[in-house]
Amino acid sequence: MEVCDIEPGKKDKPSIIALGNFDGLHLGHRKLLEYGAEKAREMKVGLCVLLFDPHPFKILHPDKKLNLLTTTREKLRLFSEMGVEKVFLLKFTAEVANTSPKEFTCGIIKDLGAVHIVVGFNYSFGARGVGTPSDLESYGQECGFGVSVIQAEKIEDRVISSSEIRRFLLNGEIISAKKLLGRWPGISGKVVHGEKRGRILGFPTANILPDEDLLIPKNGVYAVSSAIDGQKIWGMMNIGYRPTFHSRPEKSIEIHFLNFEGNLYDQDLMISIHDRLRTEKKFSGVEEMIAQLNKDREAVITLYKTSLMS
């Protein structure tokens, strides 16, 4: 898959272009991209995606946390798996933010070689987000390309949306989030040095510095897995403030990987979250903590064995 910046005035070859933020690349997004891929085969062109980078919210509301479900890097990996031929990265600036819906459609989109556009039912675009899918259809007719508007995908009468997935994760409802995503939710980040207390307790941990702007699920202990050196390694992750050892709130993300020995410092890890095991708690002492950690490890092993049978 090709990833390229947009060069003003450069005309690209004819293609189907999918528009959207695609945060999480959930089942609704997949439905849209599957339709786009089918349309691309029908019209004998490639399927492309246009992404703003950084996310517009980061420029328009710099004082607020984004709580994204996926980084751009993770989106690109998933796009590639879904058969997207090219991703256009459009640098989002104040100038781009002030582009009118018509300028965006008949200028930027047309120059990308669009012969057909695919968008979701709630897509908005142009200055202040005033452009609607109906506007896009009108401008498309004027500028010479078709538009398909994909309606909401539902599970159990619930509309699949990124905001609903965020709500589930902030409540620690991992299984519910997975149903809407179509895969296990995750968190990514770099392994950094910590206090190394886990090593002393017999549970060495990898301390994760999460990628900027990512949503962090509800505090607690989770069963997780990650691909390390080509192998899927299971572990238990703690998100929280380590109240047994700290009275000052300073959130951390620590993972103890089962049956793993090695140096992970400075590595970028993608962590898949399989379930929330319990809330974070303050222990009376080290012995009580170790006893609970052993229970947590057994819970992870049980989940691992269950996954092998499913």
Strands side by side in the biggest sheet: 1-4-3-2-5-6
Radius of gyration: 22 Å
Order of helices and strands: EEHEHHEHHEHEEEHHEHEEEEEH
- What level of helicity do the residues show? 25-40%
Question: What integer is the average pLDDT?
Answer: 91
Q: How many alpha or pi helices?
A: 10
Distance between the termini: 32 Å
What would you call the structural class?
alpha/beta
Which runs of at least 5 residues are low in confidence (pLDDT < 50)?
none
The CATH homologous superfamily of the largest domain is called HUPs
Instruction: Report the CATH architecture of the largest domain.
Output: 3-Layer(aba) Sandwich
CATH level 1 class label of the largest domain: Alpha Beta
**Number of individual domains:** 2
Can you tell me the CATH topology of the largest domain?
Rossmann fold
Globally, the shape reads: elongated
Q: Sketch the major β-sheet.
A: 6 strands, parallel
Number of strands: 14
Strand content: 25-35%
Multimeric state of these chains? Answer: single chain
Structural overview:
The chain has helices spanning 27-43, 56-60, 72-81, 94-97, 101-111, 133-143, 162-170, 174-181, 197-201, 286-309; strands at 2-5, 15-19, 46-53, 86-91, 114-120, 146-150, 154-155, 158-159, 186-192, 206-210, 220-228, 231-240, 252-257, 268-278. It has 310 residues and is of the alpha/beta class. The protein folds into 2 domains: 2-155, Rossmann fold (3-Layer(aba) Sandwich), CATH 3.40.50; 184-309, Beta Barrel (Elongation Factor Tu (Ef-tu), domain 3). The chain has a 6-stranded parallel sheet with strand order 1-4-3-2-5-6, sandwiched between helices. A 6-stranded antiparallel barrel has the order 9-10-13-12-11-14. It has a two-stranded antiparallel ribbon with strand order 7-8. Helix 1 links the parallel strand 2 and strand 3 (46-53). Helix 5 (101-111) packs across helix 6 (133-143) and helix 7 (162-170) runs antiparallel to helix 8. The mean pLDDT is 91.
